[in-house]
Amino acid sequence: MSLPPELVKKIKLLEIQTRKRVNNMFLGEYHSAFKGQGMTFSEFREYVPGDDVRKIAWPLTARTGKVYIKQYDEEREMTVMLAVDVSGSQDFGSSQYFKGEVAAHVAALLSFAAVGNKDSVGLLLFSDQIELFVPPKKGRGQVMRILRELYYHKPGSRGTDMTLALEHLQSALKKKAHVFVISDFLDQGFESQLRRLSKKHDTVAVVLEDKLELNIPKIGVVDFEDPETGELITVDTSSPIFQKEYKVYLDGLKSVRKTELRRSQVDTIDIRTDEDLVTPLLQFFQRRSRR
């Protein structure tokens, strides 16, 4: 598939900017944050005082008359899966970028970090259907394909069905993976499937928020359109009743989401469209590395 020249230029610019940030301050934190899938045997060596006696290789010790221990290397190779919401609500933003653009930038950073760490990385784009699934692979070519899909794919639907996306990941990922679900998490009813996924895979919720959604300004009567259903609603944003009820609704939504994610043992990274997206990612990796 040939890409428009302006998109090729955009992807190339994003690659240069993203790779620089990853190399300068991101890759080391990423490497420290995620542990390998286990330990593999490396070699035998003679026991020295202070070694863990549980690692003594008793059969070899008995045969040779010398005490040997087993040495292991950590398996660093991992699989990173990026599940990105491309529903209609991602076409919203009151700052420089829409939520969907921020999601693409986050996915790009994680892709470059994964490949820089010699990990496999894959992509799932979802709305209320599975828009696209790119199986995990290694290498720069895989990152370029992921970038192309993030910026070129045209969603076939504007709705959201996170349950469907999580079910697809559960069946498609055959071995343990680090799954980043990048969405505004405005869907409902996905909690039980999220819990099932997190039992098998290390799952992280990257929650996208826009300042206008968090605090609607008092600008009088405004028509709002639901980006997923097209439904129109007219509200008086200057009304104290509206402001109060909206705050109650928003606080309740965030409280339920926080409780469900914690119950599912899913870590959360909150990212706003009007703020730097690298800082919350770095802070998350730093928290992980201290565990």
Explain the overall architecture:
This protein is of the alpha/beta class and 291 residues long. It has two domains: 5-32 and 77-289, von Willebrand factor, type A domain (Rossmann fold, 3-Layer(aba) Sandwich); 38-75, no CATH class. The protein contains nine helices and ten strands. The strands form three sheets. Strands 5-4-3-6-7-10 form a six-stranded mixed beta sheet, with helices on both faces. A two-stranded antiparallel sheet has the order 1-2. A two-stranded antiparallel sheet has the order 8-9. β6, α6 and β7 (202-209) form a beta-alpha-beta unit. α1 (5-33) crosses α3 (99-116), α1 (5-33) crosses α4 and α3 packs antiparallel against α4. The protein starts with a helix and ends with a helix.
State the domain count. Answer: 2
Strand order of the largest sheet: 5-4-3-6-7-10
Fraction of residues in β-strands? 15-25%
Q: Major sheet: size, sense and barrel closure?
A: 6 strands, mixed
CATH-defined fold name of the largest domain: Rossmann fold
Report the span from N to C terminus: 44 Å
Spell out the helices and strands N to C.
HEHEEHEEHHEHEHEEHEH
- Count of DSSP helices? 9
Q: Work out the number of β strands.
A: 10
CATH class of the largest domain: Alpha Beta
Tell me roughly what share of residues is in helical segments. 40-55%
Question: What class, by secondary structure content?
Answer: alpha/beta
Q: What is the CATH superfamily of the largest domain?
A: von Willebrand factor, type A domain
Which residues form runs of ≥5 with pLDDT under 50?
none
Question: What is the average per-residue confidence, as pLDDT, rounded to a whole number?
Answer: 86
Radius of gyration: 23 Å
Large-scale geometry: elongated
The CATH architecture term of the largest domain is: 3-Layer(aba) Sandwich
